[in-house]
Amino acid sequence: MNYKRSSALFAQAEKVIPGGVNSPVRAFKAVGGTPIFVKEAKGAYLYDEDGNKFIDYINSWGPMILGHAYDPVVNAVIEKAKKGTSFGMPTEIETKIAELAVSMVPNIDKIRFVNSGTEACMSAIRLARGYTGKDKIIKFAGCYHGHSDSFLIQAGSGAITFGSPNSPGVTQGTAKDTLLAKYNDIENVKSVINANKGEIACIIIEPVAGNMGCIPPKEDFLQGLRDLCDMHGLLLIFDEVMTGFRLAKGGAQELYNINADIVCYGKVIGGGLPVGAFAAREEIMNYLAPLGPVYQAGTLSGNPLAMAAGLAMLETLNNDTELFGRLAEKTAYLHKGFTKVLNENKTSHTINRVGSMISIHFAEDQVIDFETSVKGNNETFKKFFHGMLQEGIYIAPSAFETWFITDALTYEDLDATIAAVKKVTSKF
Length: 428
Ligand SMILES: *Cc1c(COP(=O)(O)O)cnc(C)c1O
What we know:
Elements: H1 4-16, E1 38-42, E2 45-48, E3 53-56, H2 71-81, H3 92-104, E4 110-114, H4 117-132, E5 136-140, E6 153-154, E7 164-165, H5 172-175, E8 178-181, H6 186-195, E9 200-205, H7 221-232, E10 235-239, H8 251-256, E11 262-265, E12 276-280, H9 282-285, H10 304-319, H11 323-344, E13 350-354, E14 357-361, H12 370-374, H13 378-390, E15 393-394, E16 403-404, H14 411-426
Helix pairs in contact: 2-10, 3-10, 6-7, 11-14, 13-14
Bound molecules: pyridoxal-5'-phosphate.
Pyridoxal-5'-phosphate binds near residues 145 and 146.
């Protein structure tokens, strides 16, 4: 495959955009080489600026669960745009999408729309702090909740001690209020709570982790968190930016039958436009301005184009009763195919899957948390990534991302993908 035009465009971009990209993970830093510039996409396929075609397993990092340029979403945006693109005043469509979202998701009464998943998570912890009057939060090593200061904290000095910033610019003052715990380790969470009694507002978690590869919660782990939160008066925040409207209509809350106190959304909820949201029961949401004291705002929040795209997306997800089952079947089909060819090629691997999220880890042992995820062989992943690219399969340029399965994928596409994995790993 030739990437001449992409390379030239990247060189041009690098001069005026830091690293040539507007979000770091788009650069090929972890895998080497230069990023591919997209020209257009339709359904399951991406077409780049050099005329190459790829089967897409990123799908804009999750939103395009029905495939690219899905007609009802595109048409809704076009029709809305003709009537004005932003007013900064209330519009009926905001209530429509809010009503639909609230009806699809368990245990929420009210929802507020923002412009990104980052904003949703950042606002959710502010709300939790305002509501409980406590400052500290617990997050899990390896979970991603967007790029706001409180979340850019890495493990390192142990879970019970203060987190340390992993990005310059995050102050020690902020870092000390973020406590780190180990994913899938309820005893560890207990000890973090016990060491900080009376100071913690909330626990925030990706109920299925998707930012260290796909890592399912161990049986009873989420229920364990729910119980600990109830026992100690903490709010449980599910960051469902990735899992919301993907694993089920009601996301992970529905799939695992656990109620969170605040839920964050992004990705799918915007149908590919910049949308995030956070939601909770009435008594918590009423703490937000203008009803309550916790301030949160946005000039473009609830933007009509974004709401039109999101509404068209949610309507399809709500009406197509077989969609989530179909997605899970396609993903299970891939899982089975990958296992077969990787075993044939004697490639050490672990595959994790929940619903339409799946990841291949080039690691011998089970991958259950951050520590076990980083044990995967990154050199193998790099070869795998570039090999798959040559075969016309686009996966995330990082070993720590899940694959996002879309309904636009046909079984032919899946077979082609399994054949590509077979061919690429046969050379390892
Ligand atoms: C993508 C993601 C975010 C951040 O959303 P942005 O829209 O990129 O700001 C937050 N949490 C999770 C779980 C995500 O996957």
